[in-house]
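Ticket #694: bound-state structure for iron/sulfur cluster.
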Amino acid sequence: MAAEILTPGHAIGYPVPLYSYRRRFTREVGFGGISLGGYQPIRVESMTNTHTMDTAATVEQCRRLYEAGCEIIRLTVPTEKDAANLRDIRDQLRRDGITTPLVADIHFSPKAAMKAVEFVENIRVNPGNYATGAKFSSDDYTDAEYLGELEKVREEFTPLVRKAKELGVSMRIGTNHGSLSDRIVSRFGNSPEGMVEAALEFARICEEEEYFDLLFSMKSSNVRVMIHAYRMLVARADAELRHAYPLHLGVTEAGDGDEGRIKSAMGIGALLEDGLGDTIRVSLTEDPVNEVPVGFAIVRKYNEQLQVKGEKAYLKVNRVVEHGKAVAGHDAMPFDPYHHSRRRSIRIEAGAEPLGGDAMPRVETSARTSIADPDALRAEILERLSPELPAESIRSEYVNVGVGCVEDLPELEGLLDSLGRLRDRIVASTADTMLFPRLLPLVSRARLDIVEGEILGTGFIDDLGDGGAAMEFSFIHEHSSVTVPAEVLTRIAEKLRRNGLSRVSLSVVSPQGLFATRRLVLELAKAGLDVPVVVRYRDRGIDRSGVLIDSAVQAGTLFCDGIGDLVAIETGLQGEEEVGLAFNILQAARVRMSKTEFISCPGCGRTYFELEKTTALIKQRVSHLKGLKVGIMGCIVNGPGEMADADFGYVGSGKGRVSLYVGRDCVEENMPEDQALERLIELIRQSGKWVDPS
Ligand code: SF4
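RESOLUTION: The complex was predicted; output attached.
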């Protein structure tokens, strides 16, 4: 079973380089005093969660966002009245010297849009519900009905386009997974394909009106759906439309805390690494001010490349993709950029857990204590493995122990003996090729770090026998452009074929592990090697928040791309935190669900209950339910659609009122808020998905 290489002609092609960073060059679009796209830095946006009719509260929150450095502020505009009030909000802000561009967020109401456009720098419309709503019916549309509804959209939308053009206001066509129109769903399903077509329908109308101040977004609470939709949009829009329009990136309903940050960083970062994205919003169920530093932390690396290298470097960075029309970058793809499918690999026995094949991706962390202090090391290993917890709990499944020299071997043997059956969960690693064969009889998994300059000196592979242990060869690169030489892979393939080595996995450690691992996977496919791939993330001394973001991007993107059989995290974080990070990465990529998935919106002017507090209460009661998806949404207008594939929904439906959903069905309408949590738990029990917390 050889791994598959997708050719450049696969599906609709993907005009983006996959092995190095090159930003897609887009049309520059104005936002009042600033612009985005082109050579502009990637901008950071946030959104108020006050009621837009409450001028004082909204102005105050805008001021706090401005002081936090927020570059674009979005406000929800549910009605014409809210739209009219934007004038007061804007005037007050300008009087206070706050010139941050404002965006009006419109759902459903063309009348609100026609008013709001007079007072803001950008207007966002959702093609899923502008002028036509979603009833979540499964009715089929005849061609005539489909075209008739599209014509209605054109009639409602064209006046807004003309007015925005006349006023010099830019527009975001912002599609959301889960709030697509019934018409689109009837033809394309609730899918990335549908999201893309919904956006293109609106963009075509804009271009017919010679209005080009556009940008797009394709948000979803499902990171993989979001990545696929943006990629597909770029391929289709750049092939069809007259300009390469900028992209606003975001994961909707990402939640709060570490989970929300990891989910957002993974979705946004995966696309930024592809060179896509001109503005972002990190959407957290927290004070919106908290979103701003996370946003800047995500874009810093990409913006620094622009700022440090200067104008000429901009051109160099961007030369591959001219105005979005790809002239290069049609790399062979080791994965499908538009759909998730796991890379095929053989299953190997590797100690306590199998790797590869259909085994779920496993978790490894690294002990920080030296083997020279065996008692402390044993205590740290036990803390990470937490053997007292039930099977499949959030705990490390392997712990890496570094072995530096031959004198460490007796200590290692003593340690393994003292661990009893847990010895099968120890990975002994070394960078010493002479020491490596001596580890093999002692452990069930051993790793050899092969540093960049020594990669070609791997003749020792020829001399290796099976030795009893599963082996991982980890190639350590200082530069992401370097890949594992084909001759090394050929040598490993030969050994496997001759059956001298039977249980091998490979990994690459690089400052840009994403690109380096993709290269490895491509080379493996060329060499016909279907060994498991370990996604190994090693941080370089960055702070905690930097580690969360960088690991989510570098390791998480690979799992979203279907690459990886084990995630190995080596950071300066404490044991429990490091283990939590690894599981959060797998959960956000939806390749291993180890706890309840919360899809909670950030709240906005439509929210009439304390979203943060309620989310915390619900989490307290149900977060032990592995694999369950619970939506906690601020409003009945958009919540049911935007919680997408949640199993259960807790949706605000007015002051002190909540509606409860099972899947897409509303089973409790407008019930008192103080009874809603207990009823939600009852519904989970009735569905058979409840287990008592241990
Ligand atoms: S779902 Fe949440 S963020 Fe979206 S419109 Fe409703 S309250 Fe606002």
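RESOLUTION NOTES: Residues 291-318 form the longest helix (28 residues).
TICKET STATUS: resolved
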